[in-house]
Design brief:
The chain is an alpha+beta fold. The chain has 10 helices and 6 strands. The chain has a 4-stranded mixed beta sheet with strand order 1-3-2-4. Strands 5-6 form a two-stranded antiparallel ribbon. Helix 6 packs antiparallel against helix 7, helix 7 crosses helix 8 and helix 8 packs antiparallel against helix 10. The protein is globular and about 55 Å long. The termini are far apart.
């Protein structure tokens, strides 16, 4: 199936660097890590008709044959280009919230929700995972280490939780993508970078050519794993307004303001926010 390029090459974990910037304060991201999405299980249940194929996982494998139809159907809809994932806090403490899909930003705001990223909600749509993306501009070292873990998917997932800090569900989507990219792209990436460079964790040369096109290894990740990751994880760096280390064409990183979650109005923190958060 043709996979979209509109996703950061997140999960070529054993091959490429990552970085990102965003607009919240450190106290905001610290507070994000203490929040909870109360309906994340329902979000995951709505993704696929088949249960999780990996033992001990709550997220289904988006690259399995039984899941591909769901991914293809989503990418065939015109709503995919305008849809947003938004949240609404449960009470004034702003410690817990519900996630919900909307066809566009106006619909979300009319319902009293705040947009947290473009596209559909998924396993990485929580504020906890957003905080990890913002606070960890260099995910390269832990991601490469996790993708190389022996012992199968459970070991890789455990590493993403312990070493990176992802929520359990988000770690599962990263795990699936790590395995799929390794399975589908190792030959291309070996030809692109050279076997010795990959063995020594060296990735010479620019990520894109003079026209802004991705080099073959990164393009393989986009083509083979991109759509499945976007459908499963929901949140990506670019659809959350967080820059990637990989050079992108203008307009690929979408605008989302993450500084407003804990403010009654711009520039004002909520009364319950303590100084040490």
């Amino acid at each position: 199936m043709p996979f979209s390029r509109k996703r950061p090459a997140l999960l070529l974990c054993f091959m490429l660097p990552l970085c990102g910037i965003a607009n919240p304060s450190q106290s905001d991201t610290d507070r994000m890590k203490q929040t909870r999405a109360v309906n994340i299980d329902k979000i995951l249940e709505a993704q696929f008709t088949e249960p999780a194929q990996e033992p001990g996982f709550g997220v289904s494998n988006p690259y399995a044959d039984s899941s591909r139809l769901s991914v293809e159907q989503w990418y065939a809809t015109s709503e995919r280009d305008t849809a947003v994932c938004a949240l609404r806090f449960e009470d004034e403490t702003r410690d817990s919230y519900s996630l919900q899909d909307f066809p566009d930003r106006p619909a979300a705001e009319a319902a009293g929700f705040m947009v947290t990223h473009h596209g559909r909600c998924g396993s990485c749509s929580s504020l906890q995972d957003l905080a990890i993306y913002i606070d960890t501009p260099d995910l390269t070292t832990p991601a490469r280490a996790c993708s190389r873990k022996m012992g199968g998917a459970k070991s890789i997932k455990k590493c993403y939780i312990a070493k990176v800090g992802f929520t359990e569900s988000c770690a599962e989507s990263w795990t699936y993508n790590s395995r799929n990219t390794r399975q589908q792209c190792t030959k291309i990436c070996t030809s692109d970078y050279g076997a010795m460079n990959l063995m020594l964790n060296r990735y010479p040369g620019p990520n894109t050519d003079a026209d802004g096109n991705l080099r073959p290894c990164l393009q393989c990740d986009e083509d083979q794993s991109g759509a499945g990751f976007k459908y499963s994880a929901g949140r990506t760096r670019r659809n959350s307004g967080i820059e990637s280390a990989i050079e992108r064409h203008a307009g690929e990183t979408l605008n989302v303001d993450h500084s407003l979650y804990f403010r009654d109005s711009i520039g004002e923190t909520t009364a319950d926010q303590s100084a040490d958060r």
